[in-house]
């Protein structure tokens, strides 16, 4: 799954999407996030949504943050969903070893990219979820799931309704261990993404 991510390079995001946002080193569920939605004519439109998804018909909020690519077209919760791209420049996963959970930061050398996402409106609030898939061999050393990352042309296809769950972007992802301060959403600064040294050294 993907439970935290980052939007650090706000200048790059401003230049690329024309949106001015605050840097966030620890984006957490229920926070507002920057997404791109489909606009008539084929262009994209930046807007903000809550990072929690609930189907329109739900009596109580479900607050889903991820949706599995394998069941996206099967589950009733996602049948009314519209598509979006979620802007990010990194994310966190936790490696479980017994009772211990070590956080790792995944990135593409500070480049901004997009997660495939879905959204809907529940009780007059737009909310989104990140599409996930089985992790590739490299990233599965840390976690068995990973977000679906899309290049520009793949993102356009996704927004138009094509199921695009594989991209060469995922082969360019690197990762390293970070401090457990990221476990708390209260902590939101550069310390969250600073590499630390562990006794194990088999990470990328």
Number of helices: 2
CATH T-level topology: hypothetical protein yedk fold
> Considering the protein shown, what is the CATH homologous superfamily?
SOS response associated peptidase-like
* pLDDT < 50 stretches: none
Strand content: 35-45%
Distance between the termini: 20 Å
| Cα shape | globular
Features:
2 helices; globular; 13 strands; 204 residues; hypothetical protein yedk fold; mainly beta; 38% strand; single chain
Structure description:
This protein has 204 residues and is mainly beta. It has a single domain (4-193), classed as hypothetical protein yedk fold (Alpha-Beta Complex), CATH 3.90.1680. 8% of the residues lie in helices and 38% in strands. It has two helices and 13 strands, in the order βαβββββββββββαβ. Strands 3, 4, 5, 6, 9, 10, 11 and 12 form an eight-stranded mixed β-sheet that branches. A hairpin with a 5-residue loop joins strand 3 and strand 4 (44-50). It starts with a strand and ends in a 27-residue tail after the last strand.
């Amino acid at each position: 799954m993907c439970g935290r991510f980052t939007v650090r390079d706000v200048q790059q995001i401003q230049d690329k999407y024309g949106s001015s946002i605050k840097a966030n080193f620890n984006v957490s569920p229920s926070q507002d996030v920057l997404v791109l939605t489909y606009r008539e004519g084929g262009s994209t439109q930046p807007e903000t949504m809550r990072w929690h998804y609930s189907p329109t018909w739900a009596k109580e909020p479900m607050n889903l943050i991820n949706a599995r690519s394998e069941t996206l077209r099967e589950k009733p919760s996602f049948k009314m969903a519209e598509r979006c791209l979620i802007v990010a420049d990194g994310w966190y996963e936790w490696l479980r070893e017994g009772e211990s959970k070590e956080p790792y930061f995944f990135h593409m050398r500070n480049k901004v990219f997009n997660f495939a996402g879905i959204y809907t409106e529940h009780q007059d609030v737009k909310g989104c979820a990140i599409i996930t898939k089985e992790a590739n061999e490299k990233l599965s050393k840390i976690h068995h799931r990973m977000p679906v990352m899309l290049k520009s042309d793949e993102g356009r296809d996704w927004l138009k309704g094509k199921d695009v769950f594989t991209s060469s972007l995922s082969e360019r992802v690197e990762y390293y261990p970070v401090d457990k301060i990221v476990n708390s959403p209260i902590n939101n600064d550069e310390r969250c993404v600073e590499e630390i040294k562990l006794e194990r050294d088999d990470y990328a």
